[in-house]
Amino acid sequence: MKIGIISDSPVLTTGYGVEVNYLAAELHRMGQQPVCLGLHQRFSGPEKDLPYPVVVPHAGSGPGFTSIGPFLVEHKPDVVLVDHALHTCRLVVDAIRDSGVRVPTLIWYTMEGAPPYKEWIRSVVLADRAVSHNRTGALEAHRVANIPVRWVPAAVDHSLFHPLERPERERIRQVLGWSGKFVVMFLGRNMWSKQQAILIEAMSLLRRREDRDILLYVHCKPFEQFREGGWDLVDLVNRMDLQDRVVFPDGLTDQRVGLPASGSLEIPGVAARYASADIFCSASAVEGFGLAILEAMASGLPVLHPDDGGTMNEISADAGWRIPVHDQYLIAWGSTYVKVSPRAVANAIRDVRGVLANPTQREDWALRLQRRASAYQWPEVARALYRELHLLLRKGQKGGWRKG
After folding, report:
1. pLDDT (mean) for 8-36
2. pLDDT of 332-347, one tens digit each?
3. Which of 38, 137, 288, 402 is the one with CA 20 to 30 A from 256?
4. How far is CA 276 from CA 37, 214, 273, in A?
């Protein structure tokens, strides 16, 4: 089966690019023929190392949506899989329909907040088959669009993201300047919904107490011209006089490309940083899936996140520490997001540190993390999505497939 995959380019090391990289590799190993349109990829070259074709959007096409029609005409996939957030899925589905190329289309979507915007949720109606990344998104789509939707969660590479032996962990902490610190880590793009500012305010509150050895490592680009409502995080740290309490990664200049998961002796990769921190703490207002939470769990890192009643709770289950929500508010498109207060975050960090000081409780938590993370495996994801694609094609063979 020739499977056209439209999503962020698999050469990127963040978000949907990571998902497509693993998904396409697994489908290729299964004997299928994936061919990807790599949205947001700017330059040719890195894709040549992959065992399947990746089409780079033509110059001037922005993220790459105007390259969709030529991609379908040239590569003639039997079926198309779109992997992205619900609003982007709508743009891609519209572009496929506008291209005039009739091809069965499955969307594998994430949904950030509920209820979904009515025009975005129409992508579930317009696509020929829809699969959610989680149960929360599937139930909400069924409620709003009255279309039964299955869910297939994304996964994590356990060969990269796993706990480290103590000597290696201590070596990496020394390289990063974390020795003797209790390191709180967060990984997420510098944008308003990730709420890094709340984590920094929490550190300001912790400084006033006896927690003098706590260090916050915020893995993002600390300033990106306020794009997507992000902060000048360095300025915020300076105004709060937290220069010795908050650190950022060196060398992260492009938030879509990110830093490699595997690094070197001198520059530890993202996976090593997860496994060398003490806890992972998120204050995000919303998550479509929560890949960073999953990567942290697989790395043996206790995770703290808002008690969102949805996606974040679903992915961590009994392995997560839920921070009480301070408020809920409506976004311009009608979805409800959550907010946690800096004080609640600070209290959660201190409470979790107390739990981890107890060897029995620490071991019990580690077992929960291991059990929960092990449920997310890429081969299973690829097989489940392949079954969905195969059913879509069989439907066409029996009764004549009709677009939309």
Report:
1. 95
2. 999 999 999 999 999 9
3. 137
4. 35, 14, 5
